[in-house]
Amino acid sequence: LKDAFETGSGEISPETNSIKIYIANKVNFNFDNLKINFNSPFFKLDKEIGLGPYEKKEFIVELKKEDFDKLTAGFYTLTAKVDYSGKEANVDGVIRFVEKSIVTTSANDNGFVINTQKIEKKNDGNVVTEIETVMKKNIISRLFTTFNSEPDSSERKGLVIYYTWHREIEPGESLMVVAKTNWLFPLLVVFFIVAIVVLTKQYSKTYIVLRKKV
Questions:
Q1: Half-sphere exposure of 144 (CA within 13 A, CB side)
Q2: For 40, 79, 87, 120, which has the most beta carbons within 10 A of its beta carbon?
Q3: How far apart are CA 109 and CA 91, in angstroms?
Q4: Rg (CA), the chain
Q5: Rounded-to-integer distance, Cα 33 and Cα 35, Å
Q6: CB distance 76 to 40 below 8 Å
Q7: Would you say 95 and 75 are in contact if contact means Cβ atoms under 8 Å apart?
Q8: Using one digit for the tens of pLDDT, what is the confidence trace for 58-86?
Q9: How far apart are CA 121 and CA 105, in angstroms?
Q10: pLDDT band at residue 113 using 50, 70 and 90 as cut-offs
């Protein structure tokens, strides 16, 4: 039974939203009420069709990115399990997952007293990708900044410090760099110094009491 059919598909990439697959009858025989279960790492599909002699039928399958976002580029097996009159057979085809490198970046910066800066880079492609993330801080803010992971290198240019992270990330994975700058401590120090100056100035004044009789 398996020699009577052929199955296959078109190429897909990480940006593909749908795929065209087919099943073909290679013999001079009419298959009525043919049940087919298509199975692959990208999708599953059940069909019940009739297939005439040497007939070929195609189907469009909608794809969900989350179903294959961690798969790497290469060739994958498409299996069509055919059921005819109680007899079953597996027919194998090939799906080519075309190599594509896609890195998306998102950034977020919020807070004043406690400032949080986030940079996330995600591998939306299907190949292992080396990425670089750079953050910059001035010579003062760097004293009050902590990172969720230590940078691989730092370089000073004038009054600015550049922190750099290098990582290799798999398909579907991401790198999140978080920097928190806490200005609460220096603000308290400034407030304390101002309070001391004001109090010192206040207590250093000389008061004169003048009594007058007429």
A1: 15
A2: 40
A3: 53
A4: 34
A5: 6
A6: yes
A7: yes
A8: 999 999 988 898 999 999 999 999 999 99
A9: 5
A10: confident
Three-class secondary structure of residue 202 per DSSP: helix
Share the mean pLDDT of the chain: 92
Question: What is the C-alpha separation between 134 and 68, in angstroms, rounded?
Answer: 29
Q: Residue 119 corresponds to which amino acid?
A: I
Q: What is the mean pLDDT of the segment spanning 173-192?
A: 89
Six token digits for residue 189: 């120090």
**pTM for the structure as a whole:** 0.74
Residues in Cβ contact with 132 at an 8 Å cutoff, skipping those fewer than 6 apart: 164, 165, 166
The total number of residues written for the chain in this structure: 214
The answer to whether the beta carbons of residues 182 and 189 sit under 8 Å apart is no
Tell me if 41 sits within 8 A of 76, measured CB to CB: yes
CB atoms closer than 10 angstroms to residue 91: 21
Contact 121, 101 (CB under 8 A): no
Residue 184 contacts residue 114 (beta carbons within 8 Å) = yes
Q: Can you tell me the distance from the alpha carbon of 18 to that of 155, in angstroms, rounded to the nearest whole number?
A: 46
Beta strands in the chain (DSSP E): 5-9, 18-25, 31-39, 44-51, 56-62, 74-84, 87-97, 103-110, 114-123, 129-138, 145-147, 153-157, 160-169, 174-182
- Burial of 71: CB neighbours in 10 Å, binned 0-12, 13-18, 19+: middle
pLDDT tens sequence across 149-162: 999 999 999 999 99
Amino acid identity, residue 55? E
